[in-house]
Amino acid sequence: MSDSRPVRVRFAPSPTGDLHIGGVRTAQFNWMFARRHGGKFILRIEDTDQKRTQEHSLSGIIDGLRWAGLHWDEGPDIGGPYGPYIQSERLAHYQYWANWLVEHGKAYRAYETPEELELISAARKANGLPPGYDRRARSLTPEDWARLDAQGKPYVIRLKVPLEEETVFEDMVRGIIRVRNETLQDAVLLKADGFPTYHLAHMVDDHLMEISHVIRAEEWIPSTPLHVILYQAFGWEMPKFCHVPVILHPSGGKISKRKHPEASISYFIKGGYLPEAVTNFLCNVGWNYGKTDEKGEEIQVFTKEEAAEVFDITRVTQTGTKFDVVKLKWLNGEWIRRLSDEDLARRLQPFFQAAGLNAPYEILLKVAPLLKERIKLLTEAVEMAGFLFRDDVPTPELSALIPKGLTAEQTRAALQLAHDALAALPDFECATQEAALRHGAEQLGIKTGQFFSPIRLAVTGQSVSPPLFEIMAIIGREKVLARLARAIAALQAAP
Ligand code: GLU
Description:
Elements lengths: L7 E4 L9 H16 L3 E4 L13 H11 L23 H13 L3 E4 L3 H13 L15 H9 L5 E4 L6 E6 L3 E6 L7 E3 L7 H11 L4 E5 L6 H11 L5 E5 L2 E2 L16 H6 L4 H9 L20 H6 L11 E2 L2 H14 L2 H14 L6 H12 L5 H8 L12 H4 L6 H16 L6 H15 L3 H13 L7 H8 L1 H16 L3
Parallel strand pairs: 1-2, 8-9, 10-11
Antiparallel strand pairs: 3-4, 4-7, 5-6
Helix pairs in contact: 9-11, 12-13, 12-14, 16-17, 16-20, 17-18, 17-19, 18-20
Bound molecules: glutamic acid.
The site of glutamic acid has 8 residues, from helix 6.
């Protein structure tokens, strides 16, 4: 960066619900930018809209960002030299600066009630004017204020937009953006209850926290001229702005928590995604890693740290990018394959726990290499290997147990042979089992598939599982024999 200001960026979510995947992407771009430029990444909670604030949302945001590995240098939980980092604890700042603006003629008091405002807006509309406030309280004098105050009328503080001017700012991605001030509202800065609005609070904080770059969602572009006017009114140095594009759902339109479960970070946390995969994927939503391998093919699997090394914010796209969960799922599988067995076992444990299964780490460690090639989501491990930790593996349906081409009696005889052969083995190693059972198939004169399929069903209760011999070695001979005996008994009882 050619700038002299130290890089300080922030993610400033409002705790109004689950952390949105778009929010994670914004946080991540800020995080990468800070890392790329040796700067600081700050988490600030913007809870000045008390009506929309939800109590559990703050911990959800913190947990979600932590899960994604987007660690901050300053924030509500860890403090820092510019704290507090929760806006509801900083009200005195906003009140002071709102009044400063009034004293310097840059803002004014307005006493209209919400009902009056609605009438004003409707009347404007009826006259073919843009809806909103008609700035009538600009003409009130301090004497009027004193009179209205004496009547106990509450007031808000509104920005006095310099109407005859034009406001221009430069977005790092979109270039120069210009608006005629007369098209802007005299936005409310401080509400009657003493709480600031977003417009005032965030920019006061960006100033006091010495934020150098504001990287945020594009929905804020229309409000940025108001913010620029505020910076000018205060005479404060402006941060650089970068607005990142919306995330689109593959079916079209903005991805939204209301319509799409995958718009919330919790969908990925609960759904068995790895944070490495999600952050890898988000790099390519509105930006692009763009590195190729020695064959000239685009590198798909990379870490957010690697991406941060080459993160160039001016390459953020101007148009929205689709969020393709199918591709993310593929990437997740790639990431799972890259984990060590120990790491995978550790990450799998909570998913088994959540399914009510007590899965000891040592057993997960044994099964991890078998699952690694076969799952795309951690949750799939529970479907595939949950039987390892269940005492009540169901006896399979006879119709499923009897393979194509065999009768019930032949199946029973085959399982009996398997049972006896496995019982007689000197050890229960995979290779020993395999040799014995392949030999068994030959003896029976049936295909190995026909032989192994009822064994698998009898032992695991399911038709798909990780490799049979490895699985039987993990389950242990005693249980394997008991499950085979159970299936044999079921077949004997068959009509
Ligand atoms: N609190 C705002 C939001 O949640 C922050 C916008 C900004 O980054 O300035 O969208």
